[in-house]
Design goal:
The protein is α+β, with helices and mostly antiparallel strands and about 300 residues long. The chain contains six helices and 17 strands. Strands 6, 9, 10, 11, 13, 14 and 15 form a seven-stranded antiparallel beta sheet that branches.
Length: about 300
């Protein structure tokens, strides 16, 4: 029997205040579902890490495909958490459509950042793809910290992903669009056509941060790091890339729906010379959005 603990009462309560967000909420879920590189990598990691009779937590279940993989590969019980009401209703239908597995599911409409479970609950595996480049926009860090703080995970819990590494480079960009100068933050999704974007990467990628999810991480990040310019010119933006380590030998970088390189304009351009060591000051809140992102070349 399909379990949907608290589902009906929550739906009725939230329907009174929720607006129709179908277009904005469902579009990216569909992109994730059809991202073959991303899905294949997560499937491989889940198969490697989920053992028979495991209890699995899937934070931000979306279409539910990661939770379904966990059930397929032997999990005894899978708790699928989704905050968006409309997406949760679709995940419920997808679980029901997979009749051989749906008895293993409990679908919870909860906030992954604050979710609680009864005392003594422990999860063997946590799947959480609340990821963006640098984890600037998505609440992965806060959601995983919540599990540690409430002792819902232990030293034996297996996390998917295990870690995310983010790198930073100096760049020069021509922000001319159709004759208009429009410097702005951009996700350089690979399915967009960027042929007209004049971009010069002026330093090698340097590690900005490396976040392991088997421990509590500070949610406010600040650093000053040094990079070496490999050519001369005016630096007017930063270039962020991320790599998600899902399990041993399984890594995801830039895909159609995950870890798109980020282009972040600087308030003030900085002239650099070849082989010059340049300091970059960066601070932001994980999951706080780009409104909280501050960076400058010193």
């Amino acid at each position: 029997r399909f379990l949907f603990h608290e589902f009906c009462d929550t739906v009725r309560r939230m329907q009174k205040t929720s607006e129709d967000k179908a277009f904005s909420s469902i579009d990216f879920v569909g992109q994730c579902l059809t991202d073959e590189d991303r899905i294949t990598a997560f499937q491989k990691a889940i198969k490697a890490k989920v053992k028979q009779n495991d209890t699995v937590l899937d934070l931000g279940t979306g279409s539910g495909i990661m939770a379904l993989f966990a059930a397929r590969f032997g999990a005894k019980k899978v708790f699928a958490v989704e905050f968006d009401l409309f997406i949760a209703s679709l995940a419920k239908k997808i679980f029901q459509a997979n009749q051989s597995l749906n008895r293993k599911f409990s679908l919870l409409i909860k906030d992954a950042r604050t979710i609680s479970f009864p005392k003594k609950t422990k999860f063997d595996v946590v799947i959480s793809e609340l990821l963006t480049t640098g984890m600037v926009d998505e609440p992965q860090v806060r959601a995983i910290n919540n599990l540690h703080a409430k002792s819902l995970v232990s030293s034996s819990t297996r996390f998917i992903p295990e870690r995310q590494d983010t790198f930073i480079s100096l760049v020069r960009v021509d922000y001319q669009w159709f004759g208009i100068n429009a410097p702005m933050i951009l996700h350089l999704w690979r399915w967009h056509n960027w042929k007209n974007l004049k971009l010069q990467i002026m330093s090698k990628p340097t590690l900005l941060n490396s976040i392991s999810f088997d421990q509590i991480n500070k949610e406010r990040f600040a650093t000053v790091l040094e990079v070496m310019a490999h050519q001369s010119g005016a630096v007017n933006a930063l270039y962020l890339t991320s790599k998600s380590i899902l399990s041993k030998g399984v890594t995801v970088e830039d895909t159609e729906a995950l870890n798109a390189p980020m282009l972040i304009p600087l308030k003030k351009a900085k002239q650099v010379t070849q082989n010059q060591k340049v300091k970059i000051k960066v601070r932001y809140i994980f999951g706080g959005g780009y409104g909280n992102f501050r960076a400058e070349v010193l």
